[in-house]
Structures are given as C-alpha cells and as structure tokens.
Amino acid sequence: MELSALVPFLAAAIVAGTPILFAAAGEVMTEKSGILNLGVEGMMLVGAVIGFMITIVSGNHWAGIVAAMLGGGFMGLIHAFITVTLKGNQVVSGLALTIFGTGVSGFLGKSYQGMPTADPFTPFLVPLLSDIPVLGSILFKQDVLVYLSIILASGFWFLLYRTAWGLSIRSVGENPAAADAVGISVSRVRYLCTIIGGIMAGLGGAYLSLAYVPSWQENLTAGRGWIAVALVIFALWNPLRAVAGSYLFGGVEALTFRLQTAGIQISSFFLSMLPYLLTILVLVMVTVRLRQEAGAPLALGVPYDREER
Amino acid sequence: MKREPLIEMNKISKSFPGVLANHNISFRVYPGEIHALLGENGAGKSTLMSILAGLYRPDSGQIKVRGRQVQFRSPRNALESGIGMIYQHFRLVNNFTVAENIVMGAKRRGIINRQESMEHKVQQLSERFGLGVDPAARISSLSLGEQQRVEILKMLYRGCDVLIMDEPTTVLTPREVQDLFKILRLMADEGKAVVLITHKLHEVMEIADYVTVLRKGEVVGSDRIENLQESDLTRMMVAREIEYGQVNRNTVPGPAVLEIEGLQVRGDLGYLAVKGATLDIRSGEIVSIAGVAGNGQRELVEALAGLRIPVKGTIRLKGKNITAFDIRKRLESGLNMVPEDRMGMGLVPNISVMDNSILRNYYQPEFSRGPFLNYPRIRKYARSLVKNYNIYLSDINYPVNFLSGGNLQKLLLGRELDKKPQVLIASYPVRGLDVAAAEAVFQLLLRERDKGTAILLVLEDLDDIFRLSDRVAVMYDGEIRAVLDAGTADINTIGALMLGAAPTGAEHV
Amino acid sequence: MYRMRMVRREHASMRVEVMVPFMSIVLAVAFGWLFLSWSGHDAAATYMRMVNGAIGSKYNLSETVVKAIPLMLAGLAVSLAFRMKLWNIGAEGQLYMGAFAASGLALACGDMSSWLLLPLMLLAGFAAGAVWGGIPGVLRAYWQVNETITTLMLNYVAIFWVSYLVFGPWKDPAGMGFPLSARFSLNAYLPVLGTTRVHLGLIIAIIIAVLFYIILNYTRWGYEIRVSGESQEAARYAGINVTRNIILVMLISGGIAGITGMIEVSGITHRLQQGISPGYGYTGIIVAWLARLNPFAIILVAFLFGALLVGGFGIQTMGISYSIVLILQGAVLFFLLAGEFFRKYRVVLTKGD
To answer: What averages of pLDDT result for each successive group of 10 residues across chain A (309 residues)?
Structure first.
C-alpha cells in the first residue's frame, strides 16, 4: 500500500480501536480485582444509546458522555451486587447483563434509529503536533475522546502498578484471603473496580454513537464488547499493552472494511477471526506456561467467602 | 518492678455448637516475653488465640491491650491494636514480591508506591531483626522458612507489638527452626511479645520464657520456664485417670496384613510431611495413631489410601506390593479408607443416600449391568446398609445432606465396612459426634476387629485411643516415634512422646 | 441492635428448589409490566398480544414449537456440560459448525436418498459440533485452560467461517448476491408435520431429552458426571477418571449443539446462510439454568421461551421493539441469580454486632 493510503488507514485503525480500548481498559480493572465481566457488550450498548439520547435532548455531547458513563456504571453496579454481595455465578450474571443491555438499548433507541447525531465529536487538531507530516495526521488529528482513552488507559496502568491502591486491587485479584488478612476490604475493591469497568464500557459505547459512526442503531456494537474481553487476555491484563492491542484489533477492523469495499470479501472474514484465534493462543500459552507469571489474576472468577474453608 | 501486661485476657469463655472451647481462661502476656501456649488437640489454644487475633468474639470475658479494654470486631481491629497472627497456611500473594506483600494495605503517606523506597524500608526492618529476606524476591521463589519470615516482617511493618504464631515450626527444617528462634529472641529483646502456640516440648523448653498449659478448654497451669521441667509440663497436659478401661477381648491378633516400610510423603506445601514411617498392622487388631494434628497423619493416611504418591517407601498388603496401585485397585485388593472429610470426599453432597451408598463400587458387576446401573439391586443394598448400621433416615432417595453428623458417619463407615475389607483405615471417625453417636461408631469398629479386620485409626482423644486400641503408634514431626501396647502403656509416656520427647528405645512393640 | 448475617444453608429445601424458578418468571413478568408502563406503553395490551401471537392460533402455536426446538436442543447441550460445572458458552459456535457440516453434506450429496442423507447429516452435524466443543474440552482437561473463554472465542471463529462460505465458495449463483448457499435438494429436508413448519427435529429433541434423563440417572457414566460435578474430591476418592469425563462431556455437549445447527438448516432454512441462529446458543443457557438442568424441564422451558420469541414478533406492529423479549430474558436471569443466592444462604437476624 502506498503512503497516501497508509496514513488514513492507520488513522482509521486508531479510531476503530478506541471504543474497544475504553471497554478493555475498564475490563482490565475489573478482572484485576478478580471479577469476570462478560456483560461488556450490553454495557457498551446501554452507554451508546443513553449517550445518544441525552445528546439529542440536550444538544451537548459532553452531557451525553456523562450520561453514558452513569448508565454503564449503573450496570456495573448490578454486576457487582450479584457477584460480590450475592456471590452469584459471574458467567451467568455477565450474560444476563449482555442480553438485558441489548434489549434495553434496542427498546429505548427504537425511536432514535437512524437519526443524525446532534453535536458529534469532531477531530481536534493538537496545536503544533498535528502539523508533523505523516505522524501528525495519524496521531494528532483525532477527536478528543481518542486522547481521553489513551490517558485513561495509561492512568489505569499507573494506578495498578505504581500506587498503593493498585497494589490493593491486585492483591484482591490474586489472593483475596491474603488481602482480607491485612485489612483490605475485598468487597469494596471489587465493587469499585466493577463499576469502573461499567463506566468505561459505557464510554466505549458512547464513542461509537457520538464519534465513530456516529449514530444509533440496534446492535451498534456488533460484538465489540466481546473483542474487548478478548483483548484483555491478549494484552495479558496490562492496560498499556491493551492500547497497542486495541489499535491492532482496530487495524483488523479497518482492514476488513477496506477489503470488503474493494470487493475482496473472502479474506476479510479470516481477518476477522484473527483476534479471537490469537486470544485463544495467548490464553493457552499463558495457562500452560504458568499463568501466574503472565499476569492472570489468580482468583479471577472465584467468589470470595471468608467463612469458606 | 511491676510491669504492665501488654495483653490481658480475663475470664474468656467461648463455645461452639456442642463444644465448650474456652472456659474462664485468664491469660497474660508481658512485653519482651516469649510465651508458649501448650496443649493437646482440642485444648482450646487455637480458639483462644483466634479470639485475641480478632477472628472470633468471646461469649464472655474481656480483653485489655496495654491496660485499655478493647473489643475486636475483625482481624483488622486486632491488627490496628498491634496484635498480629501468623497462621500455618501463609496469607501471601505468590506473584508479588516480598516488599509488595509486606506493604500492601498498610497505612501510608501518599498513594504513589515507589519501588525503591518500599524495598528500602523493608530492607531496614529486615536487618534490624535479623530476618534476611530479599525485598525484591518473588514469594513463589522463596522457601517456606523464608516465607514465614516475610509474614513476620509484614506484622512488624505494621507496628505489631504482639506476634502470635500458630505451630510455626511444622514447615521448617531444624536449621530454620534455630534461625527462627534467634529472630524471636531479637524481637523480644526489643520489647515485643511473642505467643507461640505449640505442642513441641523441647521447643518450649528451649525458647520460651513463660508457659501456659491448657487442657479441655481450661488453664491447668502457667509459670516461668525456669521453674518447670519437661515432666511437669507433660503431667499438666496429659495426666489423668483414663475414663474407660480398655475393652476386653477374647480373640488374638493374627499375622501382619498391612506392612508399611520407610514411607516418605510430601505435604501440600512441598515439605516432607511423613519422614519415614514404618508400621505393621495385624489382622484382628486396632492400631491407633496418637499425635497432635498436623504431624503428618493426614498425609500418611492419604498415601496409604492411594490419594497421594509417596516419595519413597513401600506398602504391602498381605505380602503383595501395592505401592503403585491407584485408589480403586487398592480398594479391590481389600484396603478401605474412611476420610476425615465426611461430606465432600467420603460422601457426595446433594446426591441421594442411595446413590452415595455405591460411590466406590458402582462399576462392579453386582451394581451394574453393562453401561446401566442396576437400581433394584442398589436400592436393596442401600436399604440393607441403613438397616444393618442403624442409620436413621426417612427415605434413601433424599439427598445425603439431610442426615445428622452421627448418621453420616455410620453411613460412611458402614459402606466401607460392608465391603469386608482386609484393612480399614479411618481418619478422625468420631470428630464432631456426640457421645451416643461416637459410641455407636466404636462398637462398629470393635465388631469389625473381632471379625479379623486389620484396623488403623487416627484419633484425637487419648481416652478413645486407650479404649479401642491394641497398640498405639505415636506420631511426631512426621515420624512414628514409638509403638506401644495400649494395655500396658502409661498415658504420661504417650503424652510425652506426642510432645516430642525422645523415645527411650524400649517402646517398639 | 440487630444485624443481618448470611449463613450457608445446611441442606437444600425442596420448597426453595421449585419456588425459585417459578418466582423468577413471575417477577420478570412483573418487571416487564413496570418497564412497559414506565416507557409509556399499554402493558396489558402488550402482554395480551404476545400471548396471542404465541398460542392464539394453530399456526401461531406451531411457530412457537418451531422456535422451541432449537432451544430445547441448545438447552440440553449446555445442561450436560453445566452438570459437570464446565461452562460451555460456545453452543452458538458449535451450532454454526454443525450447520456447516450438515450443509456441506447436503450440497454435495443432494441425490442421495433421504433415508441415508438425513442420518448422515445428523451425524455430520454432531461430529462438527463435537470437535468444536472437544477442543476447549481437551485444553481444559489436560492444561486447565479456562473453557469459558475458549468456547466464547470459538463462537466468533465459527460464525465468521460460515460467513466466509456463504459470501464466497458456497454462494448461490442464483441468489441475487445475497449471502446464502444454494437451496438443498428435497432429500435434505427434514420431514414436517402437516402444513406447519414443525419438523422432525422435535422428535429428535425429545429423544435426546429422554436419552439424557436415562443416561444421567440410570447409567454408570451419568453417575460419574453427577458425582464429578458435585465434588471433585469425592470423584477422586471414588476413583473416577475426571480428565476423560471432561473431554467426553464437552464432545457430547458440542455435538448436541451441532445437531441444533443441523436441524435448523435441514428443517427450517433449507440452505446455509448468515444469521442461522438469533442467539439460540445463548438463550439455551438461560433455558438450561431456569430448568435447573433437568432434561424434561428443559423441554417445557424451551416452549415457554419459544412462545416468548414468537410473541415478541407479534408486538412489533404495535410499535414496540422486539427488544422487549431480550429485556424479559435478562430479567428472568437476574431474578434467577438472586434466587440462587437464597437457595444457598439464609439471611439471619442476629442480636448484637
């Protein structure tokens, strides 16, 4: 591919990867605390539709963003309540949230289908940096949310690996009994991390309806929530790796789209399979070769019961 | 000079359903003191210390820390008052470094964790108390002794003045034990208090300043170590008249059926739990393993049953070497085991009594026809089990969870006895049972013995051991220290051996 | 001061076992009522229209059955895995693979007699689904690789594989560019009941349910599965080969899901196409859970959900999104999860703190 086609492709890869990055960064936080959230897809849809609706009603896309975060956060709260307080099955709870979220978003968004977005996000030209040839067009002419996603993901990395809070979160995900023994509240940490995951998923969905597409239609996410879940594993539970991974997966999506429009339908499907196959590969390697060393939180998916001995 | 006690526990009582664990206990610890808490199984030492560590709440009594009365609602409260407990199973995050484990969750200034400053602080503390751990090392790469030191550092980091250690030397090599003692002495010299829950007499004599002995939930004695001798301690712990005499028998044991030789077995954490056990069990006799829980009994039983592969040694059943047999093959050869985990391993929860009755032999021709289970036969069998072993239940189709503890044990034991084993191994068969239920179990075991079965029991209560057994094997620190005739043995001797006294050599029977 | 504490129940109460699924449905219906009213719709009329759409006429009833069939099979498929606490959420992908294999056979051997072709298609569907379930099974059995994730990922691989086929090599030249395969020959059609669309798949599903019931409750292998699912320790003590069973269960679970795919292409669509399944693999999980993994209850619950799906189509003319169906499904699951909690724990009021 010649340079003139490469630059917009890479820029498109970043845009395509951003909603996944939001959701994956949040899911990393959730899983690091030991909770598996398979409801990301539903949370993204709820965020997308609420963000869209509020933006139409208020005329301000930031109001929409905040609303989307609240919506996603609320769903995260439900998941936390079921899995932490009620010690319910995490897989089923996540699936319930996905199904429920898909339903709620489809229902609420029915009358908004196909409506043009009020006040969509437009590319924000970073002064000076956006004038750099090639790199400037790829990296510094994106909308504000792209930068926000990178800042948040980096922030999460810093939080997890350089602060005391992050140490507490990771300890809860690795060995809740050890955390409990030193007085860390396992419930509180898991609640917070799951809600954060919901907020981020809501943000990711809102990005789709307010910046990427931008509009609302049923099933807008088209499986991106599941890709985000896969990305967390692919990135070995590291938010910084998730940034790179999300652009890689975004690149796959952008490439798939280009191949389809060029009429080369066949290979695009195999390309689409790639993220999922790669994730299985990574998971197998990680699990077989001492999963602990690669970063999978040891207590992921297991409810914590102090009485249980 | 009157010192003020660091910890004062006054008239502490605590009971659990059916058991009075602590009765009116008063216990004092002074700064700079290494205080040993001694007692048999079920004496109440773990309960008492769990109360101090904030895990349980006492039914009555009060706790004072530095003269001020406190009420602990959780282990965190106790930690904040400067009391830290180190358990036998460490509470460490394997993936984290030493420094991360020590620092996590502790109160701090600022939220940013700087790797070097964390490690520096840990290093300083480590040097002060002679603990010598590398702050940057991963827990998974450390030996058990080193991990224990990390636990100690964790407590010191949080400013603990009182350190409670529950049987700390179980997982240590002799060299590591000495290192630990040096560390504890350093801590005491700095004014800290250490409480050692232990049953090892020689350790008490070696390192403790003060000793409190518990028996059946009460304090039977407490004094400075200088004023006591080993024999005093043994007497306090064990001395009494045996309640029931040994049951009379009219048969004589036959030849050896189970021969265990030089068995070495690893525990869950990797250390050698059984260090070379040699024992014979003859047909028509009951041999009981006496010993404080945690000296390798569980691992020995699991290795005999086929659930754990021994590192070394052989097991022979009627002359045949069964060391390589899996659990099913051993069953078929005539070796049955009744596990201590009744509902969970021995019986399957949420499954009917009828289905549970065939757990280990469902595949045999009497209970299955081709791929199918022969339920008419199974039903008949389950009913016969219920009748023959006097199990009280309304319907064999009900899930087994509905049965009481005593009936569960009768079902479990009956099921295994019904297979007419040559050798029966039972682990803590009367744990948690009331007197009547326990009696029923005893009768079953005695009846079985008279039929000629070789029986190996692991029992908690010395009285039970004397009642049932023909011979007693005392297990301490992974070894069988002595095998004595139950009819002529002195309870004090057995008690002393359980606590680590050196066998005089006259004891092998 | 009184304080609420959660205490583990010692044993299951029979009452709770039955009440929980029942109450979950009732509460979900109530929730749906509230939701509809809050969003400005006539809840009563909506529900009436749904019930009518599902069972109001002979045709409607037959359509309910048509939708119930794949739900039965998918529910049965996942219930087997769930019995052993293996979280097979890949039924959707296993379904697609079964559809693919059966279609391949149908397209290649259209001239074969039905009597031979249909059983072979059934076998092919089973085999393909079994492989798709077996791979995660082997990974879990030998290397403890999390089957939740592997089955989930394979879903998408299977869906894209079918898309590739129908957009590419298998695209019907007479299909006006739509992503469909050529229509199967009549030999590959599952026979139907009268003038309805109810096909032989119903009988197959019922037979499998009966087989499951017999296997789980009357055979040695079923016994091993039940024991292993309840307690790994007890399974060890009993000498059961858990590794072998994990693989077998995943193979069969995947295989049944594969059959689900086969009956959909052979009985309903008569060709391979994108979107063969509107999420039967996932709905099947709800069905299995609600039915507490009991094969006969699964049949019944599948009817209920089939009615829900068909009823949901009917209300779209009222201006209500089909999504209400998903909302109700999600609500049922939530209440079920809450109910599970009460099944395992009692809430006790204790004095003091």
So the answer is: 76 94 97 96 97 92 95 97 93 94 93 82 77 76 91 96 93 93 92 98 95 89 94 94 95 87 76 92 83 61 56
Which two three-digit tokens encode residue B465?
């051991």
Distance in angstroms (rounded) separating the CA atoms of residues A160 and B59: 42
Would residue C30 count as lying in a domain? no
Q: C34, C283, C327, C342: which to substitute to probe chain A, counting the most A Cβ within 10 Å?
A: C327
> How far is Cα B24 from Cα B14, in angstroms, rounded to an integer?
9
CATH code for A3-294? 1.10.3470
ipTM of the complex: 0.88
Q: Residue C260 sits in which domain range? A: 72-295
- Report how many domains make up chain C: 1
Q: What's the one-letter identity of residue C188?
A: A
Question: Are the beta carbons of A36 and C168 separated by less than 8 Å?
Answer: no
Predicted confidence (pLDDT) per residue in B378-414, tens digit: 999 999 999 988 888 878 888 898 888 888 999 999 9
Domains of chain B: 7-238 (3.40.50.300), 244-334+423-509 (3.40.50.300), 348-420 (no CATH)
**Domain range list for chain A:** 3-294
Interface list for C 140-199 with A (CB within 8 A) = 143-146, 148-150, 152-154, 156-157, 160-161, 163-164, 167-168
For residue C12, give the nearest of B345, B360, B401 by CB distance.
B401
For residue A113, which phi and psi values (nearest 5 degrees)? -60, 130
Per-residue pLDDT tens over the stretch B252-297: 888 999 999 999 999 887 889 999 999 999 999 999 999 888 889 9
Stated pTM of the model: 0.89
CA dist B191 → B78, B185, B426, C149 (Å):
19, 10, 47, 54
Residue B366, number of CB atoms within 10 A of its CB:
11
Residues of C in contact with A103 (CB under 8 A): 323-330
Please name the residue that has the structure tokens 């895995």: C81
Q: Which residues contact A71 (CB under 8 A, 6 or more apart)?
A: A46, A47, A50, A51, A202
The answer to whether residue C153 sits within a structural domain is: yes
Q: Give the residue among A170, A214, A217 at the shortest CA–CA distance from A190.
A: A170
Question: Does residue C318 lie within any of the structural domains?
Answer: no
Cβ B91–A177 below 8 Å, yes or no? yes
Residues A182, B105: C-beta atoms closer than 8 Å? yes
C311 occurs within a structural domain: no
Is C287's Cβ below 8 Å from some Cβ in A? Answer: no
Helices (H) and strands (E) in chain A, counts: 13, 0
Q: Does A81 touch chain C (CB under 8 A)?
A: no
Residue appearing with tokens 């799906």: C309
Q: Which residue has the tokens 């079923």?
A: C222
